[in-house]
Inverse folding.
């Protein structure tokens, strides 16, 4: 990330210096040369050391290519002298035995320029090397894309496509730059470290001996600013008293006299007047960021400058690289905006297989209020071949929920021309969302299943890259409890307009809980692009008016907090092989509607009408008879409604149902609100030793964007086991009051409280009927 003024000038000057000192750049790029590596035993592949390769910023999950077609586009950062040197891309991959080498391949592109194609040979891991032409890699952010095509050896069914995969090893894949190591480092040199530890960025906070909690609080601000500055989408934070090794960044904070033993007396940071200083780390893949001063006051002043710098910087690079970087976070969609699939990073390859699935990310504001009151529209255009099987279909999903299905079965080829597919707002969430397009394309000819060397590929589906999302106006208001609102960066503002401090409760100042809290809040900083005021504490503050985030184990968190939040951690069963009974599972489903709940509400309403007096006994009897008929007609519809909020509002239920985690729940995330606006969030693991690992699982992008509701529990692998939506909801203003937004908020609230809306209509209809009957009776005159 750079400021487009000072740091961009630094880039340009570095490029010029590299051009003068290095060999002259050819007028035309050298022809691409792909060096094929023969299949080798996994143990025979030489390991690429830290100084030999710049790892790709991705995890093994990100580098898994499954199905007949899969693609990834990843951002990577090149320093000025690296961009001007010769570059080689190395990929270490393994392909499933089911893949046919005649029709399975990988196409690699950098900034849209194809740099090579490799056949995917099944068997042991093999190493592929691609020479990158001069001038393709530019200083700043670039994009590397990998498109993988698989075809099965002998099976032409859709089920067989799940057997096809290629796994690229991110630890043994990356770029080799022929550039001399840099000696004078700056903030620019922190960018290449992002995601180089299996998709994670290790941030090790090094504090001198005797550090106080105020030093830990100061370090939290620096960690948040560093995460924002470097676009670290999966930070992994730890506190220590000495520097680390391996890929990552050491963040050394303290007075000059206190950190001198940690950085050495020759450290430039001890004499520098800059807010922060960047130095080489203990190993080739590591960097050191030093924040120091003569005293605490000077450190705080320099920290404020660093935070301001991090918020003001803007990334630079190629258009493809900047787009890949933005799409990793998800592009923010605003009302009235139209965004094409290509702008969101969707790969619109002409597909000749049987099943394909591809998705893109986009972001909604943290105060977005979901509800079935409006929709955004997906305008889709595509071509498909004739002769597809009757079950051929194209399915559009938003956050894994089906929003549209289009049949593709036709004797002739067909076209989908600007078909307007609504995506209701109630399937979207604050923060990052996903749009997935799946296509099942079986053909009647698949039964013959010609061998891959004889089959002629026929394009079955081509999606127009100019298909676009059309965003409509949406409601904006803060609401809690909802974990997804917090993780997207929204916290309730104080009455003065400033953001109140959030207390990070770590019982006993346990270092494991401190690390987990720092990792979680660093991820929040990345998601919100904001540095939040945070403060560690081991004592529970007054709950009703305080914002608290607690990190610990089931048996270490204070019972006062878990009791107020109705979390049953005390009675957790320790036998992990006992599954919850169906009755226990049903008890946790608060959205399930029972007919007796509807009946009791109706009876309660009629009893209130009966209390109007004996003079209305006749009309009441008539109204009761009418209500009984109406009740029988709406009974089926009521079974689909969530009346839990209505029961809370009318006093039939407190809404305080105790939550007991499933037996195999490895981590629980919960949220609740206090009577005076306090917001409480709990992250609890089975034990303290596993807390950091479970928090790391939560902050992975594939799970972070699924956090939502009032309570969730997850297994060790990140599978969601339980989710509870609170019937109590508190709203607070985040936008200037306008009639348009107020109307949308009201519409969303009514859509989310349909049971209350229907009950109000029923009571109004009953009272209107009574009033009409009384007018007719009292106004009737005998005929002469």
């Amino acid at each position: 990330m750079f400021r487009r003024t000072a740091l961009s000038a630094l880039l340009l000057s570095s490029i010029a210096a590299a051009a003068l000192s290095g060999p002259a750049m050819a007028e035309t790029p050298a022809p691409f040369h792909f060096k094929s590596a023969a299949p080798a035993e996994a143990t025979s592949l030489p390991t690429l050391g830290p100084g030999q390769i710049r790892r790709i910023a991705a995890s093994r999950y990100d580098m898994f290519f499954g199905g007949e077609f899969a693609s990834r586009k990843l951002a990577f950062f090149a320093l000025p002298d690296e961009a001007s040197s010769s570059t080689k891309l190395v990929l270490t991959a393994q392909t499933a035995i089911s893949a046919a080498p005649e029709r399975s391949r990988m196409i690699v592109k950098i900034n849209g320029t194809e740099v090579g194609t490799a056949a995917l040979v099944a068997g042991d891991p093999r190493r592929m090397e691609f020479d990158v032409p001069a001038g393709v890699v530019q200083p700043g952010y670039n994009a590397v894309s990998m498109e993988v095509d698989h075809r099965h050896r002998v099976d032409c069914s859709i089920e067989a496509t799940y057997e096809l995969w290629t796994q690229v090893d991110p630890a043994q894949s990356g770029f080799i730059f022929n550039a001399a190591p840099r000696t004078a480092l700056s903030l620019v040199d922190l960018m290449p470290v992002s995601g180089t530890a299996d998709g994670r960025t290790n941030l090790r906070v090094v504090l001198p001996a005797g550090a106080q909690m105020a030093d830990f609080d100061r370090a939290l601000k620096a960690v948040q600013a560093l995460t924002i500055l470097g676009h670290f989408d999966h930070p992994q934070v730890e506190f220590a008293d000495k520097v680390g090794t391996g890929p990552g960044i050491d963040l050394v904070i303290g007075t000059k006299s206190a950190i001198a033993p940690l950085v050495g007396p020759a450290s430039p940071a001890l004499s520098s007047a800059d807010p922060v200083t960047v130095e080489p780390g203990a190993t080739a893949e590591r960097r050191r960021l030093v924040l120091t001063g003569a005293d605490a006051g000077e450190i705080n002043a320099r920290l404020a400058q660093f935070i301001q710098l991090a918020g003001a910087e803007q990334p630079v690079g190629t258009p493809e690289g900047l787009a890949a970087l933005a799409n990793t976070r998800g592009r923010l969609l605003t009302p009235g905006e139209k965004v094409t699939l290509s702008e969101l990073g969707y790969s619109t390859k002409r597909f000749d297989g049987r099943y394909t699935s591809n998705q893109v990310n986009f972001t909604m504001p943290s105060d977005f209020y979901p509800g079935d009151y409006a929709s955004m529209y997906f305008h889709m255009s595509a071509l498909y071949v004739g002769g597809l099987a009757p079950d051929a279909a194209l399915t559009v999903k938003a956050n894994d929920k089906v929003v549209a299905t289009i049949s593709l079965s036709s004797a002739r080829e067909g076209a989908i021309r600007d078909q307007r597919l609504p995506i209701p707002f109630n399937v979207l969430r604050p923060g990052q969302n996903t749009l997935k397009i799946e296509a099942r394309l079986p053909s009647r000819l698949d039964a013959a299943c010609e061998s891959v060397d004889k089959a002629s590929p026929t394009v079955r589906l081509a999606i127009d890259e100019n298909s676009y999302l059309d965003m409509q106006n949406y409601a904006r208001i803060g609401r809690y409890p909802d974990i997804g609102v917090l993780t997207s960066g929204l916290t309730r503002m104080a009455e003065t307009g400033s953001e109140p401090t959030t207390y990070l409760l770590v019982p006993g100042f346990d270092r494991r809980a401190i690390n987990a809290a720092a990792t979680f809040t660093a991820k929040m900083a990345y998601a919100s692009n904001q540095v939040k005021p945070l403060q560690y504490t081991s004592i529970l503050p007054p709950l009703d008016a305080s914002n608290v985030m607690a990190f610990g184990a089931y048996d270490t968190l204070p019972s006062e907090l878990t009791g107020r939040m109705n979390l049953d951690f005390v009675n957790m069963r320790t036998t992990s092989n006992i599954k919850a009974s169906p009755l226990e599972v049903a008890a946790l489903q608060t959205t399930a509607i029972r007919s007796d709940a509807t009946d009791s509400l109706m009876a309660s309403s009629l009893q209130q009408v009966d209390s109007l007096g004996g003079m209305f006994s006749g009309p009441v009897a008539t109204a009761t008879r009418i209500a009984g008929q109406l009740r029988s007609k709406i009974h089926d519809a009521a079974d689909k409604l969530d009346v839990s909020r209505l029961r809370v509002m009318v006093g039939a239920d407190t809404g305080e149902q105790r939550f007991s985690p499933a037996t195999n729940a490895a981590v629980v995330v919960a949220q609740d609100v206090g009577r005076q606006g306090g917001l409480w969030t709990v992250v609890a693991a089975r034990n303290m030793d596993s807390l950091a690992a479970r928090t790391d699982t939560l902050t992975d992008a594939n799970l972070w964007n699924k956090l939502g509701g009032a309570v969730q529990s997850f297994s060790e692998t990140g599978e969601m086991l339980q989710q509870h939506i609170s019937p109590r909801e508190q709203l607070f203003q985040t936008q200037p009051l306008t009639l348009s937004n107020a109307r949308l908020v009201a519409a969303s609230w009514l859509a989310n409280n349909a049971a209350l809306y229907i009950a109000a209509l029923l009571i109004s209809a009953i009272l209107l009927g009574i009033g009409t009957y009384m007018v007719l009776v009292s106004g009737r005159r005998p005929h002469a």
Notes: The chain has five domains: 34-177, 187-312, 330-470, 478-573+659-730, 595-641+754-778. The mean pLDDT is 82. The longest strand covers residues 414-424. The domain at 187-312 is CATH 3.30.379 (Chitobiase; domain 2).
